[in-house]
Design goal:
- The chain has helices spanning 3-27, 31-65, 71-105.
- The protein has 119 residues and is mainly alpha-helical.
- It has one domain (3-105).
- The radius of gyration is 18 Å and the shape is elongated.
C-alpha cells in the first residue's frame, strides 16, 4: 500500500460522505440534530482512524528495522511510516481546526465533540 492508494481511498471516502450528507440533513430538521449525528459518527470513527494510522506507522517502523539494508524494503517501510504520520497529522490538524472554529464562532461545544472518543 503506497501513498497514492491512500489518497485515492481518502478521496473515495470524502466523495461518499458528500453524497450521503443530503440524506443526513433531510433526516434531521434542526442544526443541533445534525451536529449530534456528526458528533456520534466522529466519536466512533476518529479513534478507529487514529489507531489505524498508529498501526500503519508502527508497521513501517518494524519493516524498516527488519529490512536489513535492502533498498526496496527500506523504501516500502518509509512509505508506511510517512503514510501513518500523514494520517495522524491530518486528523489532529482537522480536529484543531474544528476546535478553533468552535471557539471563534462561540458555538460552545453544543453537539460538537470536545475530545476524541468521548462517547
Amino acid at each position: 500500500m503506497n501513498i497514492n492508494n491512500l489518497s485515492k481511498i481518502s478521496a473515495k471516502i470524502a466523495v461518499g460522505a458528500l453524497i450521503l450528507m443530503p440524506f443526513v440533513a433531510s433526516a434531521q430538521t434542526t442544526v443541533q440534530g445534525i451536529l449530534g449525528t456528526i458528533n456520534g459518527i466522529l466519536n466512533i470513527v476518529i479513534p478507529i482512524l487514529m489507531v489505524l494510522a498508529t498501526v500503519v506507522f508502527l508497521w513501517g517502523v518494524i519493516l524498516y528495522i527488519v529490512a536489513g539494508g535492502d533498498e526496496e524494503k527500506l523504501a516500502r517501510a518509509k512509505s508506511f511510516i510517512i503514510a501513518g504520520l500523514i494520517g495522524l497529522f491530518v486528523m489532529i490538524a482537522i480536529w484543531g481546526l474544528v476546535r478553533v472554529l468552535v471557539t471563534t464562532f462561540g458555538v460552545g461545544g453544543v453537539g460538537i465533540p470536545t475530545q476524541v472518543g468521548n462517547v
